[in-house]
User: What shape does this take?
Amino acid sequence: MFAQDTISAIATGMSEGGIGVVRISGPDSLRIGEALFRPRKGAALGSRAHRTAVYGVVWDARGQQAVDEAIAIYMPAPHSYTGEAVVELQCHGSPLALRKVLSLTLQAGARLAEPGEFTLRAFLNGRIDLVQAEAVMNVIQAKSERALRVAVQQQQGGLSAKVKQLAAELRATIVQLEAVIDYPEEDIEELPAAEAMAVASRVAAQIRVLLAGAKDGRVMREGLRTVLVGQPNVGKSTLLNALLEQERAIVSDIPGTTRDTLEEVLTVKGIPLLLVDTAGIRETGDAVEKIGVERSRRQVAQADLIVLLLDGSQALSEEDRALFEQVKDRPLIVVLNKADLASKIDPAVFAGEQQPIPVVRLSAKTGAGLDALTEAIVTLAVGSGGLQAEEGELVGSVRQEGHLQQAEASLASALAAHAAGLPLDCLIIDLRACLESLGKITGDNASDDILAEIFARFCIGK
Amino acid sequence: MITHYDVIVVGAGHAGCEAALAAARLGANTLMLTLSLDNIALMPCNPAIGGPAKGHLVCEIDALGGEMGLAADAAAIQMRLLNTGKGPAVHALRAQADKNLYQRLMKKTMENQDNLKVKQTVVDRLLVKDQAVIGVETETGDTFMAPNVILATGTYLKGRIVFGKVDYVGGPNGLRSAERLSASLVEAGVKLLRFKTGTPARVDRRTIDFTKMAIQPGDEAGHAFSFLTERRIKEQTPCWLTYTTRETKEIIEANLADSPMFNGSIEGIGPRYCPSIESKIVRFADKEQHQVFVEPEGLDTNEMYIQGMSTSLSAEVQRRFLRTIPGLERVEIMRPGYAIEYDCLDPMQLQPSLEHKSIKGLFSAGQANGTSGYEEAAAQGLMAGINAVQSLRGQEPFILSRSDAYIGVLIDDLVTKGTNEPYRMMTSRAEYRLLLRQDNADLRLTEKGRQLGLVTDERYARFLAKKQLLEETTAALKQYFVGANQEAQEKMAAIGTAPLRTGTSLFDLLRRQDVSYEALAAAFDLPEVPLAVREQLEITAKYEGYIAKQRQAVEKMLRLEEKRLPEDLPYENLSELSQEAREKLAMVRPRSLGQASRISGVTPADVQVLFIYLEQRRRKGGEANVSGDSR
Assistant: This one.
């Protein structure tokens, strides 16, 4: 736990338009920093003058995709905040990009820092004097409590339920294996290793699905799927163009996408958006139009975010109401276009039942109010806290992703070992490691549960 | 009459015997007191020693110079290595023991041990002065003085036997119980729990029809618990397997109201892993039949133990339900089964040395600490005996970590987490199972036993010889390089393994799951080595990756384990700790940061806070003994 390994974390809270710092501290920090960060020009980070700012780009694990532009600073021990070798990556992207950078440091071998661990290391290395020790202890306890609150909040979500289900399946398998090992002569049905491995393989596949579907990861790879809906001629194309215009510098086309619907990729405040324009959604008898409408429905179903565009200068039509009814339970922003004309719609009619639905007034034609829309998009994308999200929330999902990756790696190891002919006692080491990782997401204590379940499930004893 | 000793052991069961032997062998003037000299090392329940995790404990006791392994080998009438198909970590030796022979052997050992006196009496009072033990007082009015007393009271503290309408105060097998000692312990500030356990009937071998049962023979591999026992195949006495029937279930169900465990007349907490047949039938109502093992209690007796049928129903109901089991239709009960309730100490009040936290010199071991099983008892007895002497000599307690031994796991669990039922050792409780194997117990612990002074010259010399042979053979295999030539490929074919792709060392070849040392020896003309050495070679080669994985985990754990926590830490005043952590830490008073981290309710943040607090104290430098590392 203490000062042996290399840790990383987001060292600053995020503020809008500000800079976020990912700090890597420990003996491996330079290697990890150099693995992700490439200077625009000149020598690698470690060969530069120490403690100077180097401009460059953070690349993803395979070096194929730029994640964010960044300034990197290398501080060899003991000339850093923690007193250890430190690399700081100052990113100017979104919270999502920051998370991605953090997640890359973990893939490169860092461990996610415990709450307050930088400060702890600073203290242990004599960078913080004795008088401050109590403050350090308080910081750690406070940060830990906040992280716990966030973890509890995140547990309400669907991921936790899914992980619990996978953990239960795996635990049932381990329990059966362990029960036979500890009670070899009881008449407990013996689970052949091959069957246990079939479960492992199934759970691993589902973990991979979770990882692929993890919103942050997917959003960073593919963009936040933002679907524009509204009646024809309400100004969807104009809005799209206005957004593209605003962010012109970083617009790119996706090569090879089928342009049944119009798709554009743009980055808003560091969050990649996959913007999808749809044909209207309305009941129709026309066969050709029906296909288009069907397609639009599917787009809406797959959307991460829906922007409902209405003509603010007209009263709400029956069709507008029907459209609103269809999308109101999804992540939604209502945009009242033509704000340059007199408004005929009262935003209060969109009051959501569960959560407030943001309503933005803008003029696609003049560009007035576009900023409010991008802000609303970012807020919905990053979560309730928006750009002011607490550190714990930012890190929470990275932590979960890390645990999922470890869980998957443990299962892969078990499967490989089984293929190589290794016996159950080795395979169980990996299966239990996987369960530990899953338990860290759901907050369950894996080993205590195993014993309890052995006794609950099997009739064992003399 | 008043006499003085260094160590007094109360009880002569499996814990008491190991405790007394360890103390005496380490040179302490030791007295062992028992209710009955005829019942030293009594096995009041099943006639078997070992099995998963328990066999591991026996091998560890042996490596540290304890007695149980030797006695179990000598008294074995059947040996089986269990779990052979499941990997080396969980291979487990189990012996059916001739109970009477086991007792006679142990009695002889105890009576002939230098520095040890054995006496029959009932201890009534623990004598404590200024929070330190000074001796014990017996029912005859004798006082024995000693600065260390080890309680190994088994199920005898306020023992109560119950089955059917029979309900009396006493110990197992018609023995007496210790009625007054409990009150004296409570008076001294000891917290007691009340547990219960049970045992099945013993029946007359001549009334069993074995043709209706499946025979359960031993195996011929010739394994032994003790490093010193010459491996040999003895004549094996079989056990027998049969099953309960629908009628068994019906009779038990019809009589549940008379079961003391169900009608509320027993309040003690019983173990989940060792349920009575009535609990099994209630809890697993849809299970059609239950296994029944019929095991010999010894070679010179017709008593047979009916494993799986522990009960507290009346003798008449026991007779009726046993007779519904195939092979037992005409069975005669010789001793009925019964439940026993007893007082034991809450192990949370103990230090990892098994010494009481607030009463100096008071140690406890075995069922007295809320465990179950002969092996668990013996392991604690050994450790309590060792630590009583360490304390006497003013030396640091001898503590095994969770990565050293099952003994370490057992004691750490007891003193850190406590137990709310009789605690049984299981391999799944050990997180570093692949490191804690039976086959390497000697390599793990003999040096430690030697340092303590419990390992004899003979054992140590043989151990060093084995270790040297192991090292030399390993080095030879690593240096023996085979090219991927025609001759080598023919040898691969003869061994029955895949051809070589590149040249390789013989040690790397041994990593293959289908290559044994014997096969290599035949193909490459290597010297023959004993089974124990071959086993080590193969396991180290084949499981190296996983062994390394567990070692890494251990290293991480040990960093925290080596950070010692001073006993006088004012947890109550450390406002930076969470409320729950403050309470738990103040109660457990862990010995190390590692132990603290395992207490439920203590978070990683609390551990960090403690760490900083320690560092702060160290820098202030005022106090002695605050420095972090234990070594």
